[in-house]
Design a protein that fits this description.
Number of domains: 4
CATH topology of the largest domain: D-amino Acid Aminotransferase, Chain A, domain 1
Strand content: 15-25%
Structural class: alpha+beta
Distance between the termini: 48 Å
CATH superfamily of the largest domain: ATP-grasp fold, B domain
Strand order of the largest sheet: 14-13-10-11-12-15-20-19
Oligomer: single chain
Bound molecules: ligand MV4
């Protein structure tokens, strides 16, 4: 029985969901179970999307592009006022970590379901997040902020190679550069700065010791507006392809109860120290000696939250709504005991046999997996036209078992049952991973695909575009045409960047 099945009086009567796809459907379901009316918003290409028909109310969004529509905070607040929504749930992605949204909510007397703008802004800057968590006593990767004009070469020498240069305003690996040798430092530092400026509008960087073959383990936290914060165990983001998580699981095969308590208490303390309200995720690296190091905080509900829900028997979206309404945490720490095991496969409309080329299109037929321990969070339906304007995830397949092997076998069974015609999917990729002996043995790391299935690590469509741009840059260096403004790279730099893409 879910331990937050206590009936909470509906604290909001109407919530606007500022998102689309499966997460919008997920939040609408939580609202319905809580007796709260749901307000959907949609770009024109989503007019036939499932969240629009499931919600109690639905309003169109205008935008120069479909993505711009969901990023338009002023328009979202205008719809919220018009719809009579007392709160906004941002889901993940889009404006979920933009501090301007909670600021606009406060200015309009509407509750933002998430942390305050100040907390989002502070934790969104990885240098400030590192400083805050260092002050809270969390272990950090040896490194340094690069905000005071430090001598990077000297700092790197002190840390010891290899080092990682990271963007303070970034996340998810964007703007990251691994430096193996001092001779490469200047060039890669400049590349990191340039990419950070382009991607995040800030060239603020930091540098860390590169943790070799780490495991990527994250702690789910929940804070309320009364100064309390708890943790709900860990998730291991077992399998990532170019920083894109493809399979997650809870608990982690390497985390012992003692390590779980230490990581969880550290994360909960960090959350309390910054006044964190709502659901959040503390990312850590765990090395081969089971030392853990704080990486960053994601100030939103994560895509992979269902594996935590299955293992702890909770509804995290309901909890988000309750704490946003000022209610105290729905659980005491000692009530939260992990039970069993859960996997999540992110099913994408990418073709694993064509470099994971995104292949949006129309879903013809669907055979959905069912049975004991199978959960499917999706917005797909027969005839649905998958738009090309958004990322390629079309479903999250979650399985639960008494132990890891039962959960794994249930996932394999569910993947075999899951039939989608009309678009290619990543299902064969997931099957290959789940049947790999090293995966079965729980021998995971962020390099799993590169180490064990390198043919699946091949470059993506995005890399192919980047290589084409580099080829053009190279061509412009040798053509008689006047050098284009962008041709600011030497031949050596172009080849080095191409090597990075192909690595
Ligand atoms: C690291 C790391 C190793 N050492 N930092 C990647 C995205 C962001 N969340 C932090 N990430 C990492 N930071 C240090 N000091 C390894 C990762 C990492 C990773 C690196 C390369 C390839 C895939 C990866 C997947 C997850 C984490």
């Amino acid at each position: 029985m879910s331990i937050n099945s206590r009936e909470a009086a509906p604290m909001f009567s109407r919530i606007l969901i500022a998102n689309r796809g499966e997460i919008a459907v997920r939040v609408i379901r939580a609202c319905r179970q809580m007796g709260i009316a749901s307000v959907a918003v949609y770009a024109d290409c989503d007019r036939d999307s499932l969240h629009v028909s499931l919600a109690d109310f639905a309003y169109p969004l205008e935008g120069a592009t479909p993505r711009a529509a969901y990023l338009d905070i002023e328009q979202l607040l205008k719809v919220a006022r018009r719809a009579g929504a007392e709160a906004i749930h941002p889901g993940y992605g889009f404006v979920s970590e933009n501090p301007a949204l909670p600021e606009a909510c406060v200015a309009n007397g509407i509750t933002f379901i998430g942390p305050s703008a100040d907390v989002i802004r502070r934790l969104g800057n990885k240098n400030q997040a590192r400083d805050a968590m260092k002050a809270a006593g969390l272990p950090l990767v040896p490194g340094s902020n690069l905000t005071q004009g430090e001598d990077v070469a000297q700092v790197a020498q002190q840390i010891g190679y290899p080092v990682l240069i990271k963007a303070a305003g970034g996340g998810g690996g964007r703007g990251m550069r691994k430096v193996d040798h001092p001779k490469d430092l200047d060039n890669l530092f400049q590349q990191a700065r340039s990419e950070s400026l382009t991607s995040f509008g800030s060239d603020e960087l930091f540098i860390e010791k590169y943790v070799v073959h780490p495991r990527h383990v994250e702690i789910q936290v929940l804070g309320d507006s009364h100064g309390q914060a708890i943790y709900l165990g860990e998730r291991e983001c077992s399998i990532q392809r170019r920083f894109q998580k493809m399979i997650e699981e809870a608990p982690s095969p390497v985390v012992t109860p003692e390590l779980r308590q230490r990581m969880g208490q550290a994360a909960a303390k960090g959350a309390r120290e910054v006044g964190y309200v709502g659901a959040g995720t503390f990312e850590f690296l765990v090395d081969k000696d089971l030392n853990f190091y704080f990486l960053e905080v994601n100030t939103r509900l994560q895509v992979e939250h269902p594996v935590t829900e299955q293992v702890y028997g909770v509804d995290l979206v309901q909890a988000q709504i309750e704490v946003a309404a000022g209610h105290p945490l729905p659980w005491k720490q000692e009530e939260l005991k992990p039970r069993g095991w859960a996997f999540e496969c992110r099913i994408t409309c990418e073709d694993p046999y064509r470099n994971f080329l995104p292949c949006p299109g129309q879903v013809q037929q669907l055979r959905l997996p069912q049975g004991a321990g199978v959960r499917l969070d999706t917005h797909l339906y027969p005839g649905y036209q998958v738009p090309q304007a958004f990322d390629s995830m079309v479903a999250k397949l979650i399985t639960f078992g008494e132990d890891r092997e039962q959960a794994r076998r249930r996932m394999l069974g569910a993947l075999a049952e899951f039939q989608i015609t009309g678009i290619p999917t990543s299902i064969p990729f997931h099957q290959q991973i789940l049947e790999h002996p090293e995966f079965i043995a729980g021998n995971l790391s962020t390099h799993f695909i590169a180490d064990h299935l390198p043919h699946l690590a091949r470059c993506s469509a995005g890399d192919i575009q980047e290589l084409a741009a580099l080829a053009a840059a190279l061509e412009s260096l040798f053509s008689n045409a006047p050098p284009a403004a962008a041709a600011t790279r030497s031949e050596a730099q172009v080849w080095k960047e191409a090597g990075r893409v192909l690595r």
